[in-house]
Design goal:
Length: 242
């Protein structure tokens, strides 16, 4: 996988690096609009907490950045499992961000399919077209994680949604313990920069597999129009880089 791998000493150092990197990437968004797509799970918590503190709370051009989600569990925002709810509690309610810049996946839509369809419409409205152009990525940055089984977003091994190349967002009703909505490969790949945030010894196996060239892991199959970056702590780093 043509990508750059940055190994940080620990999760706290990774969070500081990712926050500084993001500021550099979108810090000049006052000349336009930045679009950042977030993931869920535990790892991004450290990034959200860093962005909600000095210097990032003051330095980021919050008014010019729009926030999206790579996937969501089909639960209400107040539920502890909600990816949006986690970002809202740790970051978004602590910074001067416009409500209209927050594009949560609408899990109040009745069914995961209806939520996915409504989110696809919102993504297309923001993008201003119904088809993605390779030279005009939807997202400036997409932050992703990777599961021990190699999943990313809610693109799980063996799932039919891995083959989806038309829909921008899809329901994953078979996900456990709750149904999910996920962005599909074409939309996640419509990113200038994709950043995988990976921490912890439990991820070393999947990281080694991906960096040894395994392509069966959904995370390894992502081919963004832009660059792929791996920000990994030492505990999760593949042997050659640890
Ligand atoms: C989610 C994420 C998911 C996550 C991985 C890694 O909604 O859970 O989108 O893809 O990134 O499962 O999760 P951890 O960061 O908790 O290891």
């Amino acid at each position: 996988m043509a990508a750059d791998l940055i190994v940080l000493d620990d999760a706290a150092a990774l969070a500081r690096h990712a926050a500084a990197w993001l500021l550099e990437k979108v810090g000049t968004a006052d000349q336009g609009t930045g679009a950042v797509c977030l993931s869920g799970g535990a790892t991004p918590r450290i990034l959200y907490e860093a962005l909600a503190r000095r210097p990032y709370r003051e330095a980021m051009p919050w008014a010019h950045i729009h926030w999206f989600w790579c996937d969501e569990r089909f639960v209400p925002p107040a539920d502890a499992r909600s990816n949006y709810g986690m970002a809202q509690r740790l970051l978004l309610e602590h910074v001067p961000i416009r409500r209209e810049n927050i594009h949560a996946i609408p899990t109040g839509c009745g069914t995961p399919g209806a939520a996915a369809s409504a989110y696809e419409d919102e993504l297309k409205r923001f993008y201003g077209a119904r088809a993605l152009a390779p030279g005009r990525p939807l997202f400036d940055v997409a932050f992703l994680g990777v599961g021990e089984d190699g999943h990313t977003a809610s693109l799980f091994p063996g799932s039919a949604v891995l083959q989806e190349r038309s829909l921008w967002a899809a329901a994953v009703p078979e996900a456990q313990p709750e149904s999910r909505i996920t962005l599909t490969y074409p939309v996640l790949e419509s990113s200038r920069d994709v950043v995988f945030l990976v921490t912890g010894a439990a991820k070393r196996g999947i990281m080694q597999s991906i960096f040894d060239g395994a392509t069966d892991a959904p995370a390894a199959r992502l081919r963004p129009v832009g660059r792929v970056h791996w920000f990994v702590d030492r505990a999760a780093a593949p042997r050659h880089a640890a």
